[in-house]
Amino acid sequence: MDDISEELRQFIAHAPRVREPHLAFLRRAAGDLAPHESILDVGSGMAPYRELFSHARYVTCDWEHSIYAPSTPPDIRGSADRIPVEDASFDAILCTQVLEHVPEPWAVLEEFHRVIRPGGRVWITAPLVWYLHEQPYDYYRYTSHGLRHLLERAGFSAIEILPLTDAFTTVAQLVGELGHLMGEVQDGFEEQRGLVAAMMQHVAGLIGSLSGFDTQWILPADYCAVATRALGDA
Q1: C-alpha to C-alpha distance for 98 and 102, rounded to whole angstroms
Q2: I need a surface site. Which of 10, 21, 59, 164 has the fewest CB within 10 A?
């Protein structure tokens, strides 16, 4: 973690159980990208991982209903299923925690296939287990099989899909979030809710400490996927 900015370090520290695996995955994506190659970050939001791609041409894309207002506006404004660029415009596409927010993910992946050059790769993360967020634009959760089906349908090959967290880490993350999830209301039980939230953080730590016992990894918070547009694709 010593080679990243303080800003990115704080972003990871806000939810380390789930964001540290994302960081490792995105380091791999950055390492796969040669200097001066291009990558399009679709649904970029605040673009927290921008610095990992400083050696490449990093281009951001977000839609008009985004809840994020980064100091540097997106390079491209457009829906993920209708990106206003020409065919084969980018060497790679990055799409992290976005597919749950699109009503027609198959159309989005088909658009990625159009936008990426033959031989280029898409780098995707998507949740299997998470609470409702960015409502009302929260539509899906994904299994590894669902992601593979959608990527194959869009024409991608050499598909690799991996879980990003074990079951204990996933449950620990959710338990630790209970203080936030139960909400706040002025009903005379505010102090008790504070105690419950603190207790759940402690319980989350105990659950997370058991992560080494998971041998199956079939309850991840998120999956990551890498897929390639075949060289022969027209």
Answers
A1: 7
A2: 10
